[in-house]
Write a structure and sequence with these properties.
Length: 154
């Protein structure tokens, strides 16, 4: 199965796996090098690899999980306290996140508009009531427009 859309900072590594009503999309990050978060030095020296499995937006009426292969790099700066660091797809995922940013935004919008966790299961984006409430409270508040006419009671 080919993916008809782009996943930010990633490319599909292998074929998509389908398990009943669940899709698993294996992806790799596009960057050839990693950049140390402390000193900003680029490195190509790979220490190890591990996988992350965040939930993503549904595709073809199926829940979707990304299988992201993340590399850990050696920091080449001898003054750096970190010996290794992991590449981070910041536009796609927050650190230690279990869902992509775009899935969290979609769940929060549904939570504001429809109030819900039950409706999200029908959209193949399941989340608990507490999770939806937490996502909604994290949304930035919109600035109210300044009043044009102020009356006595205002």
């Amino acid at each position: 199965m080919n993916i008809p859309f782009a996943i930010p900072e990633c490319r599909v590594a292998h074929r998509v796996e389908r398990h009943d009503d669940h899709l698993v999309i294996p992806v790799r990050l596009d960057a050839a090098t990693g950049c140390c978060p402390e000193y900003g030095q680029a490195s190509r020296s790979v220490h190890s690899r591990y996988q992350r499995h965040p939930a993503d937006l549904p595709l073809s009426a199926s829940r979707t999980t990304l299988r992201i292969e993340v590399r850990r790099f050696y920091c080449l700066n001898p003054a750096c306290r970190r010996r290794t660091f992991a590449e981070t797809p910041l536009t796609l995922l927050a650190p230690r996140a279990r869902r992509t940013r775009r899935l969290g935004e979609a769940q929060a919008r549904v939570g504001v508009a429809c109030g819900g966790a039950r409706f999200l299961t029908h959209l193949h984006m399941p989340a608990s009531r507490a999770t939806v409430l937490r996502l909604v409270t994290r949304m930035p508040m919109l600035d109210a427009p300044a009043p044009i006419h102020v009356g006595i009671d205002d």
